[in-house]
Amino acid sequence: MPKLTLPVRLALLVAGTMLPLIVFAVGIVFHNYQRDRQAATQRVLETARSIRLLLDAEMQRMTGGLQVLALTNSLRDSDFGNFRRVAAGFLDQYGKDGVVLVADRRGRQVFSSLTPDTASLPPRNNLEIVEKVFTTRQPQYSNLFFGEVKQQLIITVEVPVIRDGEVLYDISFSPPIEVFQAMIERQRLNQDWTISIFDGDGVNLARVPNPQTTIGQRAAPSLFAEMFRRSEATLPTVSLEGAALITGFTRSRVTGWTVAAGIAENSLVAPLWRSLAITSVIGGVLLLVGLGFAVRMATTIARGEMLHDLLIEELNHRVKNTLAILQSIATQTFRSASRAEREKFEGRLGALAEAHNLLSTDKWQGSDLQDVVSRVLRPYLLNASERVRMFGPRVPLSPRLALVLSMLLHEMATNAAKYGALSNDTGTVTLDWEILGESPAAELRMIWTEAGGPPVTAPVQRGFGSRLIERSARDQLGGEATVDFLPHGVVYTVTSTLETGE
């Protein structure tokens, strides 16, 4: 074997040092991709479940309203003139496109909210569901079909009208399809998501994106087959537009309809390729720099034997420093910590980061209290804005007060989401604030009130979050914080000396 020259030996040394590090970095990138993919798989199923709960609640509300109409004496006595006034009150909450029909067992319409002239109306064209209502004496939910009255695709909620133990009529309500479309549009996180509501036959009755061209179409083949094998699952699918998705779906026990939510594979793969490209470029540059450095060192060594030992020591020193830095980075990156501790720290750090972002936008001249509150509570306002209500005047804050108040509000919201009013589907939070006194001795008082959450019990001992709220209010705000564990919900009261600039 020929003897290797000094420049070649040095080049091989650098390559042998750098290439394992590049491979290690690529391995970390793939590990992060797999972790993000698993998280996305869980997220799509949780999103589908959340929308299904909203859908079930809305359909049960419609059904309950129809059942109340079915019990009115005017309907059971066939007094349709008086019944029209009662039905109008029900329809007011759904706008002009909602329609209430009453039909007998043969499908003949005896009442329509559209016109008092029922003689000119065609018979019901969905006789199968009418017969099912008379047979089962239970509410029924239709699949998507073409309505003769509306002359468009509709769905209906059907409820029996019972008199003297016999089914007298079938009362039907066709809500505006826009009700369901708006429901899923509010839940869509970004443009990478595809969300659909399918009827019992697997046909789209609401969808984002492209509702105009996809409503009335059957689910994509990759999803359609699985929808009728299982009531809930996650799987890779291809959308009607041809995009690869990670999809989760779940079927409603109330209506028999299915909710599906999918996130584009590209949204996960694109960051992977970007990370690989960046890692490759940086690794290649470092490798070329190392090789160039090795060649230069070899050339210098060739000029004089007296510099040989010094240059070798310099190379070893640089390589050891590089390895020491990489070892330190790895130790920091993979330091063991529980998930709960990481989430608490990341949440508190995130609250400070949001406040810093807001202050940076205003060039650190201070911020308005309304903006600080909105930034901290944004995760809870996205999906259920009606559950968090805020009342109070505009209050300019100094940068220091904005940072401290953002931390306190984050702790309150986190406790509400874990144990309080935001931990279920019905609880509400009301945040009121007011200014007490006149400048320069004015004070800010905020009251955080929870209602509708799980039963409240006072904790045996206070956690770090409670101590953080009390100490920050006392030491940082020049005020005080109290918490009352009332039966209907927790109430926080925070007072602060008001500063408008520092």
3D structure, described in words:
The chain is α+β, with helices and mostly antiparallel strands and 502 residues long. It is 49% helix and 22% strand. The protein contains 13 helices and 19 strands. The protein has helices at residues 6-70, 73-76, 80-91, 127-136, 178-187, 211-214, 221-227, 266-303, 308-333, 339-361, 369-383, 399-418, 464-476; strands at residues 99-103, 109-112, 140-141, 145-147, 152-154, 157-163, 166-174, 193-198, 204-208, 232-238, 244-251, 258-264, 367-368, 388-391, 396-397, 428-436, 443-451, 480-486, 489-497. Strands 2-1-7-6-3 form a five-stranded antiparallel beta sheet, with helices on both faces. It has a five-stranded antiparallel beta sheet with strand order 9-8-12-11-10. It has a five-stranded mixed beta sheet with strand order 14-16-17-19-18. Strand 10 (232-238) and strand 11 form a beta hairpin.
- Kindly estimate the percentage of residues that lie in beta strands according to DSSP: 15-25%
Widest sheet: strand order?
A: 2-1-7-6-3
What's the Cα radius of gyration? 33 Å
Fraction of residues in H or I helices: 40-55%
Shape: flat
Structural class: alpha+beta
Number of strands: 19
Largest sheet: 5 strands, antiparallel
Mean pLDDT: 78
Quickly count the helices. 13
Parts with pLDDT < 50 across at least 5 consecutive residues: 307-334, 340-348
User: What is the CA–CA distance across the termini?
Assistant: 75 Å
